[in-house]
Specification:
350 residues, alpha/beta, Rossmann fold, 2 domains, five-stranded mixed sheet, 11% strand
């Protein structure tokens, strides 16, 4: 899925091989593709072919920048290098971005060495140096790369936009270039994929609660099922907003360390909103049971959805994710079951 032209490129180092020449400018099709993949459309097919790419008119002294074959990563890199002449070495990461692929091992030492040898990189450049993004460092052992193929690994900055000043400074990164930010814009950029994925498991929740409401209420089954289903729909939409939108948006100011804990405040707030909108005019314990049940359902589902962002944030580590899931999932499941039980009890006519 590349917009480049395949050509035979001869370097002054003496090699002649097929490389793909690309430009830094992104087309309308590139931007539409990026929008689509943000919404989960064709996510695992959004890739470029692994290999060597020529950006501008690189020569034997031009830098070699390494990236993943996830097209969004590739496009981000080339668009940040506007006006420069570089070699771009694309590794086969199965269309996974650099950071995640480094954790999985596909953006790693073995693939980097294999790709350097496959494209015959020694024939394109006089130097023996490749620049690997800092977020790829967990997968790439620099000393092993040098031992196995003779190339020195230089770890570049976190952001592609910092590469030009990084190179201008003699391949030296200042502290700001080593810091991974997680700004509001960066957090919201990962929200759409969650909004698309969540309905797959939230829809059955709506149908289940609707069916239970139809069986437990008085009168016509269909009428009660529709009423209960609407209540469930409000609850899951509130949970989706709390866990997949408000929690990442407000992440730095929400109390707590884990994503589950941070989601509680928006979850409870929106649970109260659902109670106000959907709780029936019941007296005594039934009103309290329905209110508590709805709030627990919203809060538990919201916490589960919020945990999906652990893999996209700078707030957690693999061990932290495992710890949160070990503690959070049982609590979320228990709260959801208790909340559903309370809501069912509130619908009884006895």
């Amino acid at each position: 899925m590349s917009n480049g032209q395949c050509c035979r490129t001869s370097s002054s180092a003496g090699s002649s091989a097929a490389v793909i020449r690309v430009s830094a400018g992104l087309t309308v099709a590139d931007r539409i593709g990026a929008f689509r993949v943000r919404w989960g459309i064709g996510r695992m097919r959004y890739r470029v072919e692994p290999g060597l790419y020529a950006l501008g008119s690189p020569d034997a002294d031009s830098e070699v920048l390494v990236t993943a074959n996830y097209k969004l990563s590739f496009d981000t890199l080339r668009s940040a290098l506007n006006g420069g002449d570089y070699w771009i070495l694309v590794l086969d990461t199965n269309a996974v971005n650099v950071w995640c692929a480094a954790g999985k091992g596909t953006f790693g030492t073995a693939e980097l060495v294999r790709r350097i040898e496959t494209v015959g990189l020694t024939g394109f450049v006089n130097h023996r140096r490749v620049i690997v993004p800092q977020l790829g460092a967990p997968g790439v052992a620099a000393h092993l790369v040098r031992e196995q193929c003779g190339f020195k690994v230089v770890y570049g900055p976190v952001k592609a936009s910092d590469i030009p000043p990084f190179l201008k400074a003699g391949r030296r990164a200042d502290p700001s270039m080593r810091k991974k930010t997680f700004t509001l814009g960066e957090r919201l950029a990962v929200v759409p994929i969650e909004l698309v994925a969540a309905p797959k498991f939230l829809a059955p929740v709506v149908l289940l609660i609707g069916a239970i409401g139809g069986l437990t209420g008085s009168g016509d089954f269909l009428e009660n099922a529709v009423k209960s289903g609407l209540t469930a729909l409000f609850a899951v939409l509130a949970a989706l907003l709390a866990g997949a939108v408000l929690t990442p948006a407000l992440l730095p100011i929400l109390p707590g360390r884990s994503f589950s804990a941070k989601s509680l405040l928006p979850g409870i707030a929106l649970g109260v909103a659902v109670v106000i909108l959907r709780a029936g005019a019941r007296d005594g314990w039934r009103f309290l049971a329905e209110s508590a049940g709805l709030m627990m359902i919203v809060a538990s589902l919201g916490a589960f959805l919020a945990m999906n962002f652990t893999g996209a944030s700078t707030y957690t580590s693999p061990s932290g994710v495992k710890k949160e899931m070990k503690l959070g999932l049982p609590l979320q499941a228990g709260a959801a079951v208790v909340g559903l039980a309370l809501w069912i009890a509130s619908q009884s006519t006895g």
